[in-house]
Amino acid sequence: MMEVKEKTRSKGRSQAEKVGRLKYNQQLLKRALHDLEEVKLMQRTILAGLKGMFHFEKPMVQKIVCVDEVDVLILDYMYEAGSIGLLPKDLAAKLSEFKVRRHQVSRRILRMNKRLEKEIGEKLVEKRGWHWALTSFAFESWGDSDGILGERGSESDSQE
């Protein structure tokens, strides 16, 4: 008799059988995404703590900030412009092959700033009057912080 009871008693249904395979997979995915967000938050916290000791280079900043080649080109044109910056309409004119308008340029810049602010707490681009210009953090990240700005400053000194 004991053997009969043990055979009839099964383990029970799995969670997938109880709620359905699709819903179960969605729950697993949601849990995995939640864990991933926690890891990203921890990474951001560590980066923020080491910000003073850590030097962010151009490829790393571009990986964080840029979604496509248009974003990369926007940053390159702004770096070439130096500390003076560029108007959104001038950037849009340079990006005419991508059919980007000035409003889209401004929105892209704001999104890039938001992404970098979320990751490491720094701004990449700031508004100076009507112009958008790279911040000192961006020039340090691009390597030669004196670079183009230093060359332009020496040219203006030699003309005087």
At a glance:
Mean pLDDT is 85; it is low at 145-160.
Describe it.
With 160 residues, the protein is mostly helical. It has a two-stranded antiparallel ribbon. It has helices spanning 2-8, 15-19, 21-49, 58-65, 69-81, 88-94, 102-120, 136-141, 147-159, and strands at residues 125-128, 131-134. The chain has 2 domains: 12-54; 55-159, Arc Repressor Mutant, subunit A (Orthogonal Bundle). Mean pLDDT is 85; it is low at 145-160. α6 (88-94) crosses α7. It has 9 helices and 2 strands; from the N terminus they run αααααααββαα. The chain is elongated and about 80 Å long.
Key structural traits:
single chain, 160 residues, Arc Repressor Mutant, subunit A, 2 domains, two-stranded antiparallel ribbon, elongated
Largest sheet, described in full? 2 strands, antiparallel
Structural class: mainly alpha
Shape from CA axes?
elongated
Strand order of the largest sheet: 1-2
- The H/E string reads HHHHHHHEEHH
CATH architecture of the largest domain: Orthogonal Bundle
Please tally the helical runs, counting DSSP H or I stretches of 4 or more residues: 9
Low-confidence stretches: 145-160
Please report the distance between the alpha carbons of the first and last residues.
108 Å
- Just give the CATH class of the largest domain: Mainly Alpha
Beta-strand content bin: 5-15%
- Any idea of the CATH topology of the largest domain? Arc Repressor Mutant, subunit A
Count the strands? 2
Rg calc: 26 Å
**Number of domain modules:** 2
Q: Roughly how much helix do the residues carry, as a percent range?
A: 55-70%
Average residue pLDDT: 85
